[in-house]
Amino acid sequence: MANDVIAVYPGTFDPMTLGHEDVVRRACQLFGTVIVAVAAGHHKKALFTMQERIEMAREALAGNPQVRVEGFSGLVRDFVIERGAKAMVRGVRAVTDFDYEFQLAGMNRHLMPDVETVFMTPGEKYQFISSTFVREIALLGGEVDQFVSTSVQQRLVEKVRSLGRE
Question: How confident is the model at residue 1 (pLDDT cuts 50, 70, 90)?
Protein backbone atom coordinates (compact mmCIF):
# COMPACT_ATOMS: atom_id res chain seq x y z
CA MET A 1 0.00 0.00 0.00
CA ALA A 2 1.22 3.48 -0.80
CA ASN A 3 0.63 5.14 2.58
CA ASP A 4 1.52 8.59 1.36
CA VAL A 5 -0.49 8.53 -1.88
CA ILE A 6 -3.81 10.34 -2.02
CA ALA A 7 -6.42 8.98 -4.44
CA VAL A 8 -9.63 10.69 -5.49
CA TYR A 9 -12.75 8.66 -6.33
CA PRO A 10 -15.09 11.11 -8.09
CA GLY A 11 -18.74 10.56 -8.89
CA THR A 12 -22.24 11.85 -8.35
CA PHE A 13 -23.11 9.00 -5.95
CA ASP A 14 -26.86 9.55 -6.37
CA PRO A 15 -27.15 7.49 -4.24
CA MET A 16 -24.03 5.72 -3.00
CA THR A 17 -24.43 1.98 -3.56
CA LEU A 18 -22.80 -1.09 -2.06
CA GLY A 19 -20.78 -1.28 -5.28
CA HIS A 20 -19.36 2.19 -4.61
CA GLU A 21 -18.57 1.18 -1.04
CA ASP A 22 -16.79 -1.93 -2.29
CA VAL A 23 -14.61 0.11 -4.66
CA VAL A 24 -13.72 2.47 -1.80
CA ARG A 25 -12.72 -0.50 0.41
CA ARG A 26 -10.55 -1.88 -2.37
CA ALA A 27 -8.95 1.53 -2.99
CA CYS A 28 -8.11 1.80 0.71
CA GLN A 29 -5.94 -1.30 0.34
CA LEU A 30 -3.84 0.53 -2.26
CA PHE A 31 -3.75 4.15 -1.11
CA GLY A 32 -3.13 5.94 2.17
CA THR A 33 -6.03 8.36 1.73
CA VAL A 34 -9.08 8.00 -0.48
CA ILE A 35 -11.12 11.13 -1.06
CA VAL A 36 -14.65 10.38 -2.22
CA ALA A 37 -15.37 13.44 -4.33
CA VAL A 38 -19.10 14.03 -4.67
CA ALA A 39 -19.71 15.97 -7.87
CA ALA A 40 -22.33 18.65 -8.22
CA GLY A 41 -23.37 16.72 -11.33
CA HIS A 42 -24.32 19.60 -13.60
CA HIS A 43 -24.86 17.16 -16.49
CA LYS A 44 -27.25 14.92 -14.56
CA LYS A 45 -30.58 15.46 -12.84
CA ALA A 46 -29.89 14.26 -9.32
CA LEU A 47 -32.55 12.87 -7.00
CA PHE A 48 -30.61 14.06 -3.95
CA THR A 49 -29.00 17.43 -3.35
CA MET A 50 -25.23 17.56 -3.26
CA GLN A 51 -25.30 18.01 0.52
CA GLU A 52 -27.57 14.97 0.93
CA ARG A 53 -25.23 12.89 -1.24
CA ILE A 54 -22.22 14.01 0.82
CA GLU A 55 -24.03 13.09 4.05
CA MET A 56 -25.07 9.68 2.67
CA ALA A 57 -21.51 8.92 1.59
CA ARG A 58 -20.14 9.96 4.99
CA GLU A 59 -22.69 7.76 6.77
CA ALA A 60 -22.05 4.77 4.49
CA LEU A 61 -18.26 5.07 4.84
CA ALA A 62 -18.11 6.04 8.51
CA GLY A 63 -15.50 4.31 10.59
CA ASN A 64 -12.76 4.28 7.96
CA PRO A 65 -10.09 6.83 8.91
CA GLN A 66 -8.50 6.59 5.43
CA VAL A 67 -11.62 8.00 3.76
CA ARG A 68 -12.64 11.61 3.42
CA VAL A 69 -15.83 12.73 1.68
CA GLU A 70 -15.90 16.15 0.04
CA GLY A 71 -18.13 17.84 -2.49
CA PHE A 72 -16.90 19.67 -5.55
CA SER A 73 -18.15 21.68 -8.48
CA GLY A 74 -16.21 22.33 -11.64
CA LEU A 75 -13.43 20.32 -13.19
CA VAL A 76 -12.36 17.19 -11.35
CA ARG A 77 -8.83 18.09 -12.50
CA ASP A 78 -8.84 21.18 -10.30
CA PHE A 79 -10.12 19.21 -7.31
CA VAL A 80 -7.50 16.48 -7.76
CA ILE A 81 -4.62 18.93 -8.13
CA GLU A 82 -5.75 21.08 -5.16
CA ARG A 83 -5.78 17.98 -2.93
CA GLY A 84 -2.33 16.84 -4.08
CA ALA A 85 -3.69 13.51 -5.29
CA LYS A 86 -1.56 11.25 -7.47
CA ALA A 87 -4.29 8.80 -8.46
CA MET A 88 -7.88 8.89 -9.56
CA VAL A 89 -10.02 5.81 -8.93
CA ARG A 90 -12.73 4.90 -11.39
CA GLY A 91 -15.18 2.07 -10.88
CA VAL A 92 -15.85 -0.11 -13.92
CA ARG A 93 -18.65 -2.69 -14.01
CA ALA A 94 -18.87 -3.72 -17.66
CA VAL A 95 -17.39 -3.22 -21.11
CA THR A 96 -19.75 -0.31 -21.73
CA ASP A 97 -18.38 1.45 -18.63
CA PHE A 98 -14.82 0.76 -19.76
CA ASP A 99 -15.28 2.39 -23.15
CA TYR A 100 -16.44 5.66 -21.60
CA GLU A 101 -13.94 5.49 -18.73
CA PHE A 102 -11.06 4.77 -21.13
CA GLN A 103 -11.86 7.94 -23.09
CA LEU A 104 -12.20 9.93 -19.87
CA ALA A 105 -8.87 8.59 -18.59
CA GLY A 106 -7.17 9.71 -21.80
CA MET A 107 -8.54 13.22 -21.44
CA ASN A 108 -7.60 13.32 -17.75
CA ARG A 109 -4.06 12.16 -18.56
CA HIS A 110 -3.80 15.08 -20.97
CA LEU A 111 -5.11 17.51 -18.32
CA MET A 112 -3.18 15.93 -15.41
CA PRO A 113 -0.08 14.11 -16.71
CA ASP A 114 1.18 13.41 -13.17
CA VAL A 115 -2.03 11.71 -12.03
CA GLU A 116 -2.72 8.05 -12.79
CA THR A 117 -6.22 6.70 -13.37
CA VAL A 118 -6.78 3.34 -11.69
CA PHE A 119 -9.73 1.25 -12.88
CA MET A 120 -11.28 -0.93 -10.19
CA THR A 121 -14.06 -3.45 -10.48
CA PRO A 122 -16.44 -4.07 -7.61
CA GLY A 123 -16.89 -7.61 -6.29
CA GLU A 124 -18.99 -9.80 -8.56
CA LYS A 125 -22.08 -9.54 -6.38
CA TYR A 126 -22.06 -5.74 -6.91
CA GLN A 127 -21.19 -5.56 -10.61
CA PHE A 128 -24.76 -5.12 -11.80
CA ILE A 129 -25.69 -2.38 -9.31
CA SER A 130 -25.97 1.16 -10.61
CA SER A 131 -27.28 4.29 -8.93
CA THR A 132 -29.65 4.78 -11.86
CA PHE A 133 -31.25 1.36 -11.31
CA VAL A 134 -31.45 1.92 -7.56
CA ARG A 135 -33.18 5.30 -8.01
CA GLU A 136 -35.68 3.86 -10.48
CA ILE A 137 -36.50 0.86 -8.31
CA ALA A 138 -36.99 3.08 -5.25
CA LEU A 139 -39.13 5.61 -7.13
CA LEU A 140 -41.34 2.79 -8.42
CA GLY A 141 -41.85 1.39 -4.91
CA GLY A 142 -39.41 -1.51 -5.05
CA GLU A 143 -37.04 -2.74 -2.37
CA VAL A 144 -33.43 -1.58 -2.62
CA ASP A 145 -32.04 -2.87 0.67
CA GLN A 146 -29.81 -5.41 -1.11
CA PHE A 147 -28.13 -2.65 -3.16
CA VAL A 148 -27.45 0.11 -0.61
CA SER A 149 -26.48 0.50 3.04
CA THR A 150 -29.23 0.83 5.67
CA SER A 151 -28.70 4.58 6.07
CA VAL A 152 -28.95 5.14 2.30
CA GLN A 153 -32.07 2.99 2.12
CA GLN A 154 -33.70 5.10 4.85
CA ARG A 155 -32.88 8.29 2.96
CA LEU A 156 -34.31 6.81 -0.25
CA VAL A 157 -37.56 5.92 1.52
CA GLU A 158 -37.79 9.45 2.96
CA LYS A 159 -37.06 11.04 -0.43
CA VAL A 160 -39.69 8.94 -2.20
CA ARG A 161 -42.23 9.90 0.48
CA SER A 162 -41.35 13.59 0.14
CA LEU A 163 -42.03 13.33 -3.58
CA GLY A 164 -45.43 11.75 -2.90
CA ARG A 165 -44.46 8.48 -4.57
CA GLU A 166 -44.77 5.97 -1.75
Answer: low
Strands (E), 2-101: 2-11, 31-39, 67-72, 87-91
CB 37 within 8 Å of CB 8: yes
Total domains in the chain come to 1
| Mean per-residue pLDDT of the chain | 91
- Looking at residues 32-54, what average pLDDT do you find? 91
Q: Is residue 147 part of a domain?
A: no
Catalytic residue set: 20, 44, 93, 131
Which pLDDT does position 97 carry in this prediction?
Answer: 72
Whole domain around residue 44: which residue ranges?
2-126
Counting beta carbons within 10 angstroms of the beta carbon of residue 95, is it exposed (0 to 12), middle (13 to 18) or buried (19 or more)?
Answer: exposed
Does residue 133 fall inside a structural domain?
no
Which helix (H) or strand (E) is 52 found in, with range? helix 50-60
pTM for the full predicted model: 0.92
Quick check: is 162 in a domain? no
How many Å apart are CA 162 and CA 73, to the nearest integer? Answer: 26
- For residue 58, being part of any structural domain is answered with yes
Rounded Cα distance, 58 and 152, in Å: 10
